[in-house]
Known about the structure:
The complex is a heterotrimer.
Chain A: H1 2-22, E1 32-39, H2 46-59, E2 63-70, H3 72-82, E3 90-92, H4 98-103, H5 111-114, H6 124-129, E4 131-132, E5 135-136, E6 139-142, E7 146-151, H7 152-157, H8 167-179, E8 187-188, H9 195-207, H10 224-238, H11 251-259, E9 265-269, H12 271-277, E10 288-291, E11 303-304, E12 308-312, H13 319-329, H14 332-337, H15 353-358, H16 360-369, E13 373-374, H17 382-397, H18 403-419
Parallel strand pairs in A: 1-2, 1-3, 8-9, 11-13
Antiparallel strand pairs in A: 3-12, 4-5, 6-12, 7-9, 7-10
Chain B: H1 2-37, H2 55-61, H3 64-95, H4 102-108, H5 111-114, H6 117-128, H7 134-141, H8 155-183, H9 187-195, H10 200-229, H11 232-237, H12 249-258, H13 263-295
Chain C: H1 6-35, H2 38-41, H3 56-63, H4 70-105, H5 111-123, H6 127-139, H7 146-170, H8 175-182, H9 187-216, H10 219-224, H11 233-238, H12 248-274
Amino acid sequence: MRTRWMLAALAVLIAFTLMAGGCGKAAPKGPVELNALFMKQAGYSEDDIASMTNDFVKANPKVKVNLTFVAYEELEPKILAAYSTGGYDVVLGDCIWPPKFSKAGVVLDVSARMAKVDTKDIFQGALDSVSYGGKYYGMPWLNDCKYLFYNKAMLKKAGFNAPPATWDELASMAKAIKAKGIVKYPIAWSWSQAEALICDYTALSESFGGRMIGSDGKPAITADGNLKALDFMVKSVKEGITNPKSTEMLEDDVLATFVAGNAAFGLNWTYMYAGAKDPAKSKIGGDVGIAPIPGTAGVKSATVNGGMPLMITSGSKHPDEAWSYILAISSKDVQKRLAKNALPIWKSLFDDAAVVATSPEVVGASKVQYAYIKNRPQVPYYGELSAELQKDIQSAVLGKVSPQAALETAQKKALEFAAQK
Amino acid sequence: MPKRNTEGRFALAISSPALLIVFGVVLFPLVATLAYSFMNLRLTSADRGSFVGLANYASVLGSEEFWAALGRTAYFTAVSTALETVLGLFIALLLNEDFHGVKLLRSIVILPWAIPTIVNGSLWKWIYNGEYGIMNAILLKLGLIAEYRSWLSDPLTAMNLVVIADAWKMTPLAAIFFLAALQSVNKATYEAAMVDGASAVRRFFLLTLPYLAPTALVVIVMRTVEKFKAFDVFYMITRGGPANGTKVLMYETYLRAFTNLDYSGAATYAYLFVVIIASLTALYIKVLKRSEELNA
Amino acid sequence: MPKRSGSLTVARNLFAVAVAFGILGPFAWMFVTSVSAQRDLTSVPPSVSLAGMSLDRYARILTSVSQSDIAYAFRVAMGNSIFVAVLVTVAALVFGSLAAYAFARLEFRGREPLLLFMLFTYMAPPVIFVVPLYLVFQALGMLNSRMALVLLYSSFVIPFIVWVMRGFFSSISRSYEDAAAMDGCTRLQALLYVFAPMARPGIVATGILAFLMAWDEFFMALIFTSNLAAKTIPVAIAEFNGKFSIDYGMISAGGVIASLPPVVIAIVFQKYIVMGMTSGGVKE
């Protein structure tokens, strides 16, 4: 009887000793080893990233870089599990994480390092996404925003030769297309209960002149522009111009619906253009047009930032080498060379003939649209806020509560989140 | 008493590897997470690391989200467990028979169970798809609907559809367990009953069901715990939506840990979860002990 | 057995057909999805035709050799999954049954508390273990290793197996072992030669359960593995999804292949579940 307890205690003791013994290993001498965490299927292919990395390593023989590629969903949990011990030095993140990560001490403040970067040549929206409290916490790397895609043939059939410039125009075009029987539900959105919904909502509310976080940094969800945006969404469902299945769709479903010829309009990221032109997938014969997202009387256009910055974890043991690596792979040369796979963060490159040649229509639209990139609320409680907003906006769109009530609920919760110390 | 001592030592000897593995790995995290639940471990908090006593538990128990999530979890658990147990039982009875093709049936019954959960989730999401789903296509062909509908856009329907998806995958488990039990049955008793003239239905209710009660209990407890822990299927099909309609306890816990960076909140949810499950299990076991006594 | 009543037989046969359809239906659709082109699948109604089918996706999974190709990763992940699941099953069956026998048959101090602790471990959701264990494993350099996954999975599979098997074992009559003891068998001999064969259906069913628990596990594999050295199938399949999209065709292909090892195992072992005791036991 006593033996058993002793044995158990011994087992626990052994376990703890192993753990303790494992810590405090002396750092090995030799080349500096950087661990970098990237996402699969992220603009650049894995081969692209491997080749940029090889170039960096060749130019910096004292540094070795280990690359890890994971699915998007794995990025955040892995970063959270590994940051404190520097398991990864360089990590690719979503543009909505810097405020949260900086407050939680997950990533390093790189303001001093950014001072040496030509930030004037980077799109303001991208820079905004990596700053919080006046400091920089990462380097923009992948640039992306949503555009308005439209089926040129369908618009022409309904008598329209140019894309709409305002939401009212879009709504009336959609009604005309529906009335003529060209397509049953002209607009497809990604309104599933997911981040995609907030991406759409941000673009909409900003273009109606609303902001979810006021200039004082406090939640302002019930602001006029936000309500107008939600009203627009709900009305478009009621009037039958929005595909009712939008509430279960993600971005790829919008693409699939569009290329199957079941939508005249769709909001989506840059990748939709190539997808719509791909004959293997697309039934609309490449009749896709790309345009800036419509605005309203006061706002010419607004789109949501979907970029992904590179950050250095706070536990990294080699921040200097990590930063050199980051600078190398986000340099103008690299971004120019691989512009075909991902549009650059550098404004000047958009005037470069070689870059424009990769996809003239897209580059032309991006140049205009990037000037209007807005970020989703940059607050440390964005995770909770987004989840709450997703639920409330869906409730309104599904007709379960009024838009006013939905936003009031969201505002109440947002204030609670903001009040947490 | 000598017999007890050697028995005890023998027991310890043969169970020590299992105990070592489990204790060695599990003890530290269990204690650590329990500690987290008494602290403020919201990574974004200025007060991070401070001791807060029962404040986390108080705030979670007072929050609407917790009870709503618990309600959804309870619904999911009750309905899908009932479905799996009853269906599993009948399928096991079927497989226990001897007829042309039963061997084949026994081999394929494991198919749904063999599909990894995340594939199963994707498969059913694809089947239920509002734009191209095969379910819509079949219902339309049968004339039951006028046009394709977005089934996953209604909170209650979405929950029921997830129930079906998970129950489809896991019913084979119940079936196989019941089958194993049925195969160990004492045939002599049945023959005696038949000689006495009992009909198949009577034999079922008087002999089979009581015999299967312990197995049913194992299955029900097992499925209840698993259903409460269910995360993957919700992650793949609905992400907690629509309008939070399928946001179950594990989903809330996951969001707290990995999206809200709130480890203490997640730990609190996790331990409350354990308390609930433990109470349920204790209840079941009590019921089993009572039925065992009645049967003896 | 006397002849069944006719109507019961008809009902039984109908039920058998319904079960077969219910099981095979979704699976068949998954297979069709994996061999059809995206274009055909997204038609309304789906315009699936034999002409449009191709085994392209399977070819890609089974033959791609580029390190960075997702399909190649799938093959490697398959190997990892099999390795991990087999070892976990063996550990669970060997260690677990021994412990279960102890809990079911033997008297010793602390039996009830230990059993409850085992159950408690099974009831705890994985999220309780993830963060603290990650830190420990990282300190020990055990991240991204298959053996670490084996250890990790065993720690929650074994408690469950012990508990389930204890249930099975308890329902087997003691008279056999008592008889063996009277014949002069030691405890160990009784366990191995008398008890084990009788418990075989339960052991096999539980073994299949252990295999599938390890095979299926997604969340911890996600956190604890990063590259092909240890990545398992659920993680590899999740990677078929992009940031915005779900590639149903590839997931279905991956799913069909990923289901094969468990199915093969089940087919091979199902007769052990079914081969019951021909002589019948003694029901008390």
